[in-house]
Amino acid sequence: MECVVQGIIETQHVEALEILLLGLCGVHRVRLRVHELCLKSGPNLGSEASEVRLLCDLEQPEPTWTVRHVGGSMRGAGADQISVLVRTMVESKVSKNVLRLFYLLGYKLDHELLRVGFAFHFQRSAQITVTVSSVNKMLKLHATDEAVPVTPGIQLVEVTAPASAENYNEVAAAVSSFCEYLAPLLHLSKPGVSTGVVPTAAAAAASLMSYGGTTIM
Fold first, then answer.
1. pLDDT tens-digit profile of 79-101?
2. 90 and 68 in contact (C-beta within 8 Å)?
3. Contact status, residue 190 vs residue 84, Cβ threshold 8 Å
4. What angle do CA 131, 135, 141 make, to 5 degrees?
5. Which of 20, 51, 86, 215 lies 20 to 30 angstroms, CA to CA, from 139?
6. Is the pLDDT of residue 73 over 90?
7. pLDDT at residue 193 above 60?
C-alpha cells in the first residue's frame, strides 16, 4: 500500500520549492528522468481491463526497469476522514525485456510519458518521497529526446510514502503533517481532486529565494 497526495506548481516557483524541501528534508535531491509506458490488457486476458506501468529510469548509467501496478483506493468513512489517498500498489524490478513480455501476454501500449525533474527521499515519521517533475509526451513512439511538455509552465508535485494495513493511519498523518509546510507554495490533495495553484505562491517564493534555503528545519 501507499499514501499519496498530488499538486501542481508553476515552473517559475520550482527553485523556491527546492530550497524549501532542502531545508525541510536535510538531504540533497536526486535527479529524475523516467520514461513511463502505460499498458492495458487485451480482451484475451479477461473482461476486466488491467493496467500496468513500466518505468525506465534513464538517469542510471544502465537504464533500469520497474513494473508498477496501482490498485484500488481505500473507500468508506475512514478514507473520507483522512486527507491523503490510501491505495494498493505493487512494484518490482524487471529486466529490459519486460516490454516484449507484456506484448506477448496481450497487453497494448496505451500511452507513454517522460517525467523530468528531481526527488527527495527522507525519513520523517515515515519514509517519504517528494517528486517534482514536468510531464512530457512523445510525438513519436519511444522518442524521449523529442518529448514536449503536456502542460507548459506547470510541474507536478507528488508526495508518497509506503504503508501497510496496520500502519496507514500513522503514515497518512505523517504525510499530512509534512504537507502543511509546503502550503505557502502549493495545494496538495488526493489524486484526481484539482485544487489549482496557490495565489500567494509568488510572495512565498520570493521570500524563500531571499533566504536562500539556509535554515534547516
1. 888 889 999 999 999 998 999 99
2. yes
3. yes
4. 130
5. 51
6. no
7. yes
DSSP 133: E
Cell of 3: 499514501
What are the percentages of helix, strand and coil residues in the chain, rounded to 5?
25, 40, 30
Q: Where are the alpha helices (DSSP H) in 85-167?
A: 98-105
Beta pairing partners, 57: 34, 64
Residue of 30, 21, 11 lying closest to 119 (CA atoms): 30
Q: How far apart are CA 76 and CA 99, in angstroms?
A: 36
Give me the residue label for grid cell 534547516.
216
CB atoms within 10 A of CB 36: 16
CB-CB contact of 3 with 85 (8 Å): yes
Residues 92/2/76/53 CA torsion (nearest 10 deg): -40
Task: Render pLDDT for 99-126 as a digit per residue (tens, 0 to 9).
Answer: 999 999 889 999 999 999 999 999 999 9
The pairs formed by 67-70 with CB atoms below 8 angstroms and a separation of 24 or more are: 67/91, 67/92, 67/94, 67/98
Q: CA of 72: how far to CAs of 63, 88, 169, 181, in Å?
A: 29, 6, 17, 28
Mean pLDDT of 22-46: 89
Give the percent of the chain with pLDDT over 70: 94
* pTM assigned to the model: 0.89
